[in-house]
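Minutes, methods subgroup
Present: GH (chair), OT, SY

1. OT presented the first of two proteins processed in the latest run. Sequence and structure tokens recorded below as shown on screen.
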Amino acid sequence: MLAQDATPTKAEIESKSILQYVQEGGPLSYVLVFLSFVALALMIRNFIIFSRKRLSPPGVMERLSAMLRENDVEGALAYCAAPENNSFLARVFGAALLRCSRSAFGFLELRSALEEAGSREADKLHRSNEGLGILAAIGPMLGLLGTVIGMIGAFQTIGTLEGAARSQQLAVFMAYALVNTAEGLVVAIPCTVAFALFRRHVDHLIGDIATDIEELARHLEHTADTEKAPHKPAAPASGQRGAAPGRGEARGVHAT
């Protein structure tokens, strides 16, 4: 009779809520639930910050193009440094302009400056996505920890208890083990997928923004090429052309 009373009926099993399953998982179960909310918040944040309009606003691109066409390099540098224009595009191009303005080689090292600044900002973007990668790694580990704790309790129960008490306690520890395993996978699987998708999306965005930066760099290179173009000397006047033979003739007469 005790064993029958301790065994849950089919209706009781089907009527269990998610909260009851979480409670059966013990303290680690609550930790995994908390991590799932953290993962959801990171995904929402990534959706917001990893957008083309946020990383390369059209207004910033148009304004910088206009300034560079007018050869207003100082104005473009100040525009990139303004807090209201803070973006991936402005940070990369502003850092390159600042380096060129301080260098003795000027715009000759524009390409290397852009590559260095772009690599640095790209690393920052990828680091913003690393939170999901960390959660994807530690989720299964925490689930496995809960599984191990549950199995240890189950084996201790088998060795110390008997009868209905052993069956009931064994069921508690097995639920502890399996609930934590399931929750660890529930956290890890979406985080792994989201981490990979966001990483690919960031790489795609960086490639698109590199095209915009290349267009801005062409304005500067065109200006630099214009300044370096050699100026042809003006042709001598007709009176001067006539005066030269005269001086030559005079020298020839004197020599004779």
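2. SY then presented the second protein from the same run.
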Amino acid sequence: MKKQISSLDLHFLVKELKMLEGSRVDSIHQRENNILFQFYKQNIGKKMLNILVGEGMFLTEEKEDYREPGNFSMVLRKHLSASKLESIRQINSERIAELAFSSKSGGKNLYLEFFGKGNAVLCDEHGMIVNALQHHEFKDRSIMPKIKYSHPEMKHNFLSLNPDILKELFGHSKIDSLVKCLAIEIGLGGAYSEEICLLSGVDKNISPNIIEERQIKRIYSAITKLVNSKIDAKVISNNGEIIAVCPFSMELYRDYEAKNFDSFSEALEFFYSFFRPKIKSEHEKKIEKLRNRIQEQSAAIESLSKEAQELREKGEFIYHKYSLVKEILEEVNKASSKLPWKEIKERLKGHKIIKEVNEKERKVVVEV
């Protein structure tokens, strides 16, 4: 099950997030790979964008505990606080979102990468990297300060395909099946590639090299249908287990349970909430600490009560045998004043009541 949003997911999500354009950045928070932007827009009010770097993003009304600011959030605050979000867009059909900001000090672009391990890269108006959440040295690019930002690019953009491009792509493909070709070479991912095969009626296992022109037209029609679908967001589950989130109804999940949402952003928030550990607030942490202390004290009380009961029973038993115990103690004490303990031990071997003599600690064990 995928937890990263796909290129097509991002295409629909960005459409919804366009409503943030023109907002002012009020605050920025970060904890590890989780970045939260709080925006304010006139006539709309406060909006919070929760970014799970490398996974997805969504609007939220819940603000978790970000008491300790992350290092990258300090960089973002320095450059983006009180700035205006001019635009949010997807880079071609890549799994990259660009958030463009403007302020008196100049423009800044924040690139959010949702592939691989993910990253968030802040650049100046000339495309030079100011800083990044993760610094990397790749074979074909570097994510380091003072270097021009570049990103991997798919050869084919599914947002601007046509039948002729598809024909050329399939004819030169070295991948053995249509579904894999759509997923890898066009970047649609597994689920949407399966969906296109279902909608077009073309066998998903057919070799791309032998696909006929009439089939290419049906595949192109299916891709166009998906790209232009109206948002009808759903979270899909199977026997109570969440397995997918999608921006519209899909034939692929026709026989599964579906929970409907008013927006794709809401569906994504619901989806990710099942896979991310809930971060406790300071108030919740204090309550949990007190509960643990109460449990420890209750356990200690129970242990002490049990021990007290055992000692009470022993005391009562000794009380009933007091005369016998007193007599033995007096005899042993009397003997120890005249004889060494080693000799006492020898003389008491086989005694009916005294079963053991510890000469080092000067103790005797009796059985009554």
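Chair's summary of item 2: The chain has four domains: 7-143, 158-273, 282-319, 321-368.
Next meeting: continue with the remaining queue.
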